[in-house]
Design brief:
Elements lengths: L1 H28 L4 E5 L10 H6 L8 E11 L6 E5 L6 E5 L15 E13 L1 H15 L12 E14 L1
Length: 166
Amino acid sequence: MAETFQQEFLMFKQFPTIAITLVTFLALSTPVLAKSYGAGLSLNQTTPLTEILSNPDNYVGQQVQLKGLIVDVCEMRGCWLYIAGDQPFEKIRVKVVDGEIVFPLEARGKQGTVEGVVEKFVLTREEVIKNRQHHAEERGESFDPATVTSGETVYQLRGTGAEINL
């Protein structure tokens, strides 16, 4: 009888450890569900962002799919996001039609897959100033137009769909 009591006591004493281990295992093995936005995903192949940025004019007008970490989201309307590539400081903006797709702020820091058409914009100095001023206002930051010395060429995706692991 004393042996049975000892066995039951040991099992009871180990229960919290077993329970924590089981809960941790279940939490880590549960798949992350991706939430779909817009038209969802239709392409079967992902194009590395490095490849697009290395030869962007070759991709203008083409529908592409990118995977990566979402590093920023529009705080005003959720109408754009930036997705990072696999190289340091590599990212591209994914812009959607305001109100058609709304990316949630909690997408920032999450993995996502986006699809869209590569676009090219050749901006004058004045257009660059206007865009940067707008983004600074959205973020509540200051902006000095004197920091812009010339126009620039910008590439982005006109987003059609996305899946984000929230």
